[in-house]
Specification:
Helix content: under 10%
Oligomer: single chain
Number of domains: 3
Strand order of the largest sheet: 1-2-3-4-5-8-9-11
Structural class: mainly beta
Strand content: over 45%
Number of strands: 26
Distance between the termini: 17 Å
């Protein structure tokens, strides 16, 4: 099966015309979505996946949000009869990929529903596509009802704060567990960073001026699953930092935040003390840093094929991103 390998030159205009003529599925107002845990096998990358989706049940009509990793805001609608949920092929919406919009379709699926266990299962799985080219490819899919309970997240740690040829970055370990070691839902977990200058604690703010691939104008609380595919890795595994006064920072901190229902619980701030040993200037003569990401913003190796984004970071901080087909 092919995997969204068509050229995108001139495609955005054509798709935008298609988008305006299709109705997008929306759930009924006033019905609160319930969280379910998706488990399935991604046949394209040959890897098991797990994430959260939202389901609204309104009589025999079932609405599901989040079945596509490319466009998590998209909904599909099916009919539940005799514990079999039939979801027809449908338009899910448009997703923005590096300035162009693409229409995403759900290709239809059938789920068996175990009402007692509150589990929807589809051994054959489902696919989504853009103009007939496959995007999501899942088999052995289950959607299990989940109840998120209030919990205090475990305290994260900072494993490194350093400088390379392209700037300062911090690496963090943010557990997806509570203080008792119980698993948390990653979609309800976030983190926030701080720094200290002259004994005063400040929130670290991500702005579009510094984080050029960030959609929001500013960010202080960062969802655990968030990545801009460049400066911020998912789970805070590596985050590049931008500020004029980094040389004056004496400590850097991070805390975890968990939101379950109306409850918001926070971990203590973990502080990483910074040695005041002076700062080496970034050498502009250093070679360009290059990496590739796929349509989901995931870093891929240099041998990856298909439609990719090539991202180049110059030593002076300049960012250049280009679409490539390999």
């Amino acid at each position: 099966m092919k995997k969204f390998t068509f050229l995108m030159i001139g495609l955005a205009a054509m798709l935008s015309q298609t988008v305006t003529t299709q109705a997008q599925v929306t759930p009924p107002q006033g019905v609160e979505p319930a969280m379910y845990v998706f488990n399935g096998h991604d046949t394209y990358v040959d890897r098991d996946k797990s994430f959260e989706v939202q389901i609204v049940m309104d009589g025999d009509q079932v609405y599901i949000q989040g079945l596509s990793e490319y466009y998590t805001a998209g909904w599909v609608q099916g009919t539940l009869v005799n514990n079999v949920l039939t979801i027809p092929a449908a338009y899910m919406g448009t997703f923005n990929f590096w300035g162009d919009e693409y229409a995403l379709d759900f290709d239809g699926a059938e789920f068996a529903y175990d009402e007692i266990a509150n589990i929807f299962s589809a051994p054959d799985g489902y696919t989504t596509s853009v103009e007939g080219e496959l995007l999501d490819e899942f088999t052995n899919v289950t959607l299990t009802g989940a109840v998120a309970e209030a919990a205090t997240p475990a305290t994260p740690t900072i494993t490194n704060f350093t400088q390379d040829d392209y700037g300062y970055f911090v690496t963090m370990d943010i557990p997806v567990q509570d203080v008792d070691g119980n698993d948390l839902y990653a979609s309800l977990l976030s983190y926030q960073m701080y720094y200290v200058v002259d004994g005063v604690t400040h929130e670290y703010v991500l702005t579009q001026d510094n984080y050029v691939f960030q959609e929001l104008e500013t960010m202080t609380e960062i969802p655990y699953n968030y990545t801009d595919s460049y400066d911020v890795d998912e789970g805070g595994k590596q985050v590049y930092l931008y500020a004029d006064d980094i040389e004056q920072w004496t400590a850097f901190g991070v805390k975890s935040i968990y939101r379950a229902g109306d409850q918001v619980n926070e971990s203590p701030i973990f502080w990483y003390q910074l040695a005041q040993t002076g700062v080496n200037n970034i050498n502009e003569a250093q070679p360009t840093q290059i990496h590739f990401v796929d349509l989901q913003g995931r870093k891929v190796n240099d041998e990856a094929h298909g439609l990719l984004i090539k991202i180049e970071r110059q030593a002076d901080g300049t960012v250049r991103a280009t679409k490539v087909m390999r």
